């Protein structure tokens, strides 16, 4: 839901800090998530996750738009595949990092493999620490985006799908005879 709205917002209002703001909002939501887990107030998790989703959409849509604009229309498939590959690699890396953080914390707390024997308090503490680490990573990623964000050009290229014209050079694949 948020990605199409953010895409339209990015097209209409050309502001160079959408991605920075998105990571900042996601970080705040992750900090709130960590606090909510520690307090045991699970009724607050849904609104916190909604705020996180809004931050993610605010980051991801402009990111995808800029990746797609980085190459000519004839190579949009390459840009899209690189974007998807990067996104999935990042998700897999995040899950692996979270698993490592969980494992190390459970081990240090004296729990057996995979948190077996860990009570709800220990699980909440480990989850909160993991979310806090994720929030810090979001803030670290937002810093260079804020500092080195390029201004959006006045001559804005629309992200709407357009028909291919004869001017779009589409490379033809030569087949071996």
Q: Can you characterise this structure?
A:
There is one protein chain. This protein is mainly α and 177 residues long. It has five helices and no strands. It has helices spanning 2-12, 18-39, 45-69, 76-108, 120-148. The termini are far apart.
Report a brief summary of the structure.
This protein has 177 residues and is an all-alpha fold. It has helices at 2-12, 18-39, 45-69, 76-108, 120-148. The radius of gyration is 21 Å and the shape is globular.
Count of alpha/pi helices: 5
Tell me roughly what share of residues is in helical segments.
55-70%
The poorly predicted ranges are 154-159
Largest sheet: none
Structural category is mainly alpha
Mean pLDDT: 82
What best-fitting shape do the alpha-carbon axes yield?
A: globular
As a percent range, the share of strand residues is: under 5%
Distance between the termini: 49 Å
Number of strands: 0
Please tell me how large the radius of gyration is.
Answer: 21 Å
Write down the secondary-structure element order: HHHHH
Explain the layout of strands and helices.
Elements: H1 2-12, H2 18-39, H3 45-69, H4 76-108, H5 120-148
Helix pairs in contact: 1-3, 2-3, 2-5, 3-4, 4-5
């Amino acid at each position: 839901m948020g990605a199409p709205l953010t895409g339209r917002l990015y097209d209409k209002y050309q502001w160079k800090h959408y991605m920075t703001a998105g990571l900042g909002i996601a970080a705040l939501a992750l900090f709130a998530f960590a606090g909510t887990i520690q307090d045991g107030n699970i009724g607050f998790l849904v609104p916190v996750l909604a705020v996180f989703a809004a931050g993610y959409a605010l980051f991801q849509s402009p990111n995808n738009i800029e990746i797609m604009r980085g190459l000519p229309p004839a190579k949009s498939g390459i840009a899209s595949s690189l974007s998807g590959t990067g996104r999935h690699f990042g998700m897999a890396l995040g899950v692996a990092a979270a698993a490592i953080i969980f494992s190390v914390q459970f081990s240090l707390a004296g729990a057996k493999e995979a948190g077996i024997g860990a009570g709800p308090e220990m699980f909440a503490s480990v989850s909160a620490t993991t979310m806090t680490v994720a929030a810090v990573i979001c803030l670290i990623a937002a810093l260079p985006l804020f500092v080195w964000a390029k201004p959006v050009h006045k001559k804005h290229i629309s992200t709407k799908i357009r028909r291919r014209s004869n001017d779009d050079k589409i490379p033809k694949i030569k087949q071996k005879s």
